[in-house]
Amino acid sequence: MPWALPLRWSPWGRPGVKALVTAGVFVTTLWNMRFFLNPSKGSGEELKHREPLVILVWEWPSKQVPSVSRDVCRELYSITGCQLTTERQLLHQADVVVFPHSSLQPGRDKLPKEKLPGQNWVWVSLESPSNTRALAAWNKTFNWVMTYRQDSDIFIPYGKLVPNRSATVNIPAKTSLVSWVISNYHRTQKRAEVYKNLSRYLHVNIYGKANNKPLCKDCLLSTISKSKFYLAFENSIHRDYITEKLWRNSLLAGTVPVVLGPPRANYEQFVPADSFIHVNDFGSLEELATFLKTMNSSRYRQFFAWQRRFSVKLYADWRERICAICTAYPHLHQGRLYPDLKSWFNS
């Protein structure tokens, strides 16, 4: 610092004590002023953002748009320092912009013309790769991804088990063996093939649009709960793709899930190994059918042992999912860009 050199020595060539004190005060003053001139930096790690964080949802992910106030994250989930908005005119104020994949169809004409400096864009999808089209058009567009995949920047599962010390097991009364709720039935799907072969050996009570037996929202769980087992068959098989068919229709309803989806080891990353039955556990569907039909009550109760330690938490409100960005933000890689979104999602 050249400006400090004359202050270190008096005109007589000896250290000037008064000058040294004055220099010290001057340097200290400048050091303190830096916090006011540039408040985003401190003596330690640089802060990632100054509150509040503004998140703009470009289009709401579901058809039903709930009431969304700017302080909804604080009001509903006690998450502070974060504001949520769906008002596109506030794009220039947004730190994060959220784009559900459904809003990206058919192309870029519905997106902002350009990304503002320092702004991060988030790609959101709860669908599997098999049901997600036109991803190749979005290379080098999004900074972060928000999906059911555990390796997402923002992980949003369909549900999870949370600790619960109730130490009680609640098994609803049973009047049937197996049930299945299915709306989109396609013969080319793996689950259609498995059901067709399994139904040769046991009867399955089918509900939903595919069988012209739709269930009202309030009677869904009460109807399913009367069955001992539920076919939690996913519409496609991909890593971590474990949907409400397991969390809501099976575990929350109080029935044992018979799952068709990713390998057993993947399911066990989410739920205890003794809480479900995997189709792949058996050499044939006839063996599976025999296992279900001949199970005694003692063995059946063992599938509910998880209830002594856990309860089911469903993620059904998109406001809670979007607010998850607030808590994840300080740990996210700033400026990251996905060069090939399709390759990542299909990996």
TrEMBL record:
Where does this polypeptide localize? Golgi apparatus, Golgi stack membrane; Membrane
In which broad location class does this protein mainly occur, judging by the first location in its UniProt entry? Golgi
Any GO molecular function: 4-galactosyl-N-acetylglucosaminide 3-alpha-L-fucosyltransferase activity
Enzyme class, first EC level, given as a word: transferase
Catalyzed reactions: an N-acetyl-alpha-neuraminyl-(2->3)-beta-D-galactosyl-(1->4)-N-acetyl-beta-D-glucosaminyl derivative + GDP-beta-L-fucose = an alpha-Neu5Ac-(2->3)-beta-D-Gal-(1->4)-[alpha-L-Fuc-(1->3)]-beta-D-GlcNAc derivative + GDP + H(+)
Which stretches make up the Fucosyltransferase C-terminal domain? 172-344
Which Gene3D superfamilies does the record match to this protein?
Answer: Glycosyl transferase family 10, C-terminal domain
- Which superkingdom, per the lineage? Eukaryota
Any single Gene Ontology cellular-component annotation: trans-Golgi network
Question: InterPro entries, from UniProt?
Answer: Glyco_tran_10_C, Glyco_tran_10_N, Glyco_trans_10, GT10-like_C_sf
Pathway it acts in?
Protein modification; protein glycosylation
Membrane association type? Single-pass type II membrane protein; Single-pass membrane protein
Any idea what this protein is called? Answer: Fucosyltransferase
What gene is behind this protein?
Answer: FUT7
